[in-house]
Amino acid sequence: MQFNPRYNTLPSRLYHHQQPSPLKGAKAGHFNAALAQQLQWSEEDIQHWVEICSGQKTFAAFEPLAMVYAGHQFGQWAGQLGDGRGLLIAQIVDKNGQTIDLHLKGAGSTPYSRMGDGRAVLRSTIREYLAGHALNSLGIASSNAVGFTSSEQGVQREKLELGAMLLRTSDCHIRLGHFEWINQYQGDLLPEFTQKCIEWHYPECLDAEQPVLAFAAQVVQRTAVMIAQWQLVGFAHGVMNTDNLNITGSTLDFGPYGFLERFRPNWVNNHSDYQGRYTYQQQPSIGHWNLWQWLNNLVPLCPASYNKEQWKEDLAQCLEHFEPTFLEHYKLGLSQKMGLPSFHKDSFDCAMAFLRILQTEQLDYTQSFIRLQEKQYEQIKDDCLDRRAFESFFAMYENIRELQDAAELDAQMALINPQYILRNHMTQKAIELAERNDFSEVERLFALLSQPFIKQPELENAADLEPLPSDVPEVMVSCSS
Ligand code: AMP
Ligand code: MG
């Protein structure tokens, strides 16, 4: 590994140095060999992956640390938070020259653990491992993981579960909440911290007339694009607190996430989300709200030569681009999913008509797009109680496609509509086996989800494609993990 221990160069008030505390009886879970290669792990590192992914082996070149941050949770100021059960154990340079964080989740309690035990359970570790891989393979910016380990140590949740550790990778573990913590508790650190964020993550902004404004605009842009991509694949993050969004717009900390099966935009997948704040359909507006909170923290960075009111207005202006950026990406992607030309004035309305049918008829989101792609129109209609609505949508659909180059539109559909998503029952089965020390289903899902756009009959199970039976409710996932 080639180290770039840059977070260690920040003022020490921003973190706490400590070593991981290993679990009893650590053992191999799964290893992402392709990612390790991308991260330039040596043969020796690879040989020792279980020790590395279980906190038994750390690196002299990087002193592990827990970061401090704050956040708004479920819309309320939550005060100081921080890495309560994870440590940054390295920052390394990948094959493309990009610096990537290695963060070991479940590594024991830290000064930021509050009431928690500093651990992660096998169930949530596998959920995060597979979801990060699924999103990356779908081309969505997200954390990923080099591997995870299980153990023989019990960890108490609603019931006793097995402790585990995940070696997560991300281009950035700096959260919106980092700025909230600094502003609230150690305001003098703000200029230097912001400067480092720009140098590390948005160097192109250094040459702008006002680098902070250019940086803010970029964070808004990338977050909007990420959320548009979530919406397109039907991904619901589940806990979009400001401490769970980072400044590079790559998905992080998705605990009780879910991929939509039936198209129910107001589905609450997080057990603790009593008000339905973080449903699929709310994600764009919550992203906007989080960024608005975040931008407030940049107000003190007004340059001496600048009018303070103007500065606030300019920051607010950055947020004005959120909605158009989101809509541009969402509409473009949706047209591609539908096999409709994005430039046609009626394409978006037609796509909305299709989504309304999926919602009314409670059809499976992913499979319905695959059926459209495979021109199984009759099958979709057969699943509709309101056949008239389908016929009227379909007339509009054919009308728009009639005069276009259908082959090109069909080719686009195949590039954007996944054959496979990570359905809850798939993860659940993998977890149940893993809890009995059988990781074969994790391996199968890992392989299947490596190429989600390609049909893989030799790897797939019939259940991977099946919509939820109408009498089976969606699962709500507990936040405590
Ligand atoms: P999350 O909702 O998982 O993003 O966690 C919110 C905050 O709680 C973060 O500061 C976490 O580090 C902390 N946290 C969550 N679970 C635990 C745990 N089991 N032990 C210690 N801290 C935790
Ligand atoms: Mg978190």
Automatic annotation (TrEMBL):
Catalytic residues (UniProt): D243
Binding site for Mg(2+): N244, D253
Alphabetized Pfam families for the sequence: SelO
Top-rank taxon, per record: Bacteria
PANTHER family the UniProt entry points to: PROTEIN ADENYLYLTRANSFERASE SELO, MITOCHONDRIAL (PTHR32057)
Keyword Phosphoprotein: no
Organism name: Acinetobacter tianfuensis
Binding site for ATP: G82, G84, R85, K105, D117, G118, R168, R175, D253
Family to which this protein belongs: Belongs to the SELO family.
Keyword Ligase tagged: no
GO terms, molecular function: AMPylase activity; ATP binding; magnesium ion binding; manganese ion binding
Required cofactor names: Mg(2+); Mn(2+)
Keywords assigned by UniProt, alphabetized: ATP-binding, Magnesium, Manganese, Metal-binding, Nucleotide-binding, Nucleotidyltransferase, Transferase
HAMAP family associated with the record: SelO
Protein name (database record): Protein nucleotidyltransferase YdiU
Catalytic activity: L-threonyl-[protein] + ATP = 3-O-(5'-adenylyl)-L-threonyl-[protein] + diphosphate; L-tyrosyl-[protein] + UTP = O-(5'-uridylyl)-L-tyrosyl-[protein] + diphosphate; L-seryl-[protein] + UTP = O-(5'-uridylyl)-L-seryl-[protein] + diphosphate; L-histidyl-[protein] + UTP = N(tele)-(5'-uridylyl)-L-histidyl-[protein] + diphosphate
Role: Nucleotidyltransferase involved in the post-translational modification of proteins. It can catalyze the addition of adenosine monophosphate (AMP) or uridine monophosphate (UMP) to a protein, resulting in modifications known as AMPylation and UMPylation.
Enzyme Commission number(s): 2.7.7.-, 2.7.7.108
Lineage summary: Bacteria, Pseudomonadati, Pseudomonadota, Gammaproteobacteria, Moraxellales
